């Protein structure tokens, strides 16, 4: 065995909390419960090819999308793993229309959990990577169940955020405001082990990630920006960027975080007076923005930092431009001059 330390996610969280003497250990307990949920979902995702798991439930979620069985499963696993620990006062999920109260019989804690239980679920049947995204805030109210008001927050108020990507291996990436750290699930021992310490996204990348099928609905700035990424500029030595688009936000984001570059889901300007967005602020954009900023990157709508947007609705949607700092700043220049 090499001399390097084996650091489980639990040890990492405890050591981070030790650096903050005011910490009560509640966040450690909460994140620990989440890792258990992640392991259970990971096991089920890995068995997704088995007939009893595959198939649609035939229902639609509140966004009018088909819900796959694994979405519901992941949603249930997270709710049931998190509702009794005494750390939370309320939860909110992409799959539930309203906030999820903590059952009467359990103590209420000072944190709130928002999550996308299974992101990229349209890819499950094709064995493409999917993920879970989570975001943790401290309550505003002082006791009892948390309220909707507690959930309608700005990204800068997050205490911790992370995601699990169920890919060729299962990885957990989280931040509690002291860098973004990655852990790989060792299936042999069932533990997440520190594999990517203090991730730093390159300041500029060579890859862009966007659904190019939507070209006709983009604003002029986005269209020009993407066009220019494909150009060769001998004076600056710029070669065309490569396109990679999985269609699973977690997987597209994970690659962007490790390799650098830019992921874009701009608004749809089919009706120029009513631009429409797809990705959810509280369950998708804000947590990934926290992680990317902790890794030295940037997240923006084009003219506003994602972390500065205060949610007005639980299921609010937003454009999301995220990745390497220089790439996102360059995009903002195009967007402002559109
Ligand atoms: O098919 P599109 O429009 O490119 O959308 C892909 C995006 O939709 C999402 O699947 C939405 O997430 P859910 O699967 O959680 O609904 C993102 O993961 C992904 O980035
Ligand atoms: Mg999603
Ligand atoms: Mg989802």
From TrEMBL:
Q: Summarize where Mg(2+) 1 binds, as residue positions.
A: 94, 116, 118
Which residues of this UniProt protein bind substrate?
Answer: 119-122, 211, 245, 278
**Molecular function as annotated in GO:** fructose 1,6-bisphosphate 1-phosphatase activity; magnesium ion binding
Glycosyltransferase keyword on record? no
Q: Where does Mg(2+) 2 bind?
A: 116, 119, 284
The protein's UniProt keywords, in alphabetical order, are: Carbohydrate metabolism, Cytoplasm, Hydrolase, Magnesium, Metal-binding
GO BP term (any one): fructose metabolic process
The protein's location, in the record's own words, is: Cytoplasm
The record's section on Pfam families has: FBPase (PF00316), FBPase_C (PF18913)
Q: Which reaction does it catalyse?
A: beta-D-fructose 1,6-bisphosphate + H2O = beta-D-fructose 6-phosphate + phosphate
Q: Which family does it belong to?
A: Belongs to the FBPase class 1 family.
Q: How does it assemble?
A: Homotetramer.
Record protein name field: Fructose-1,6-bisphosphatase class 1
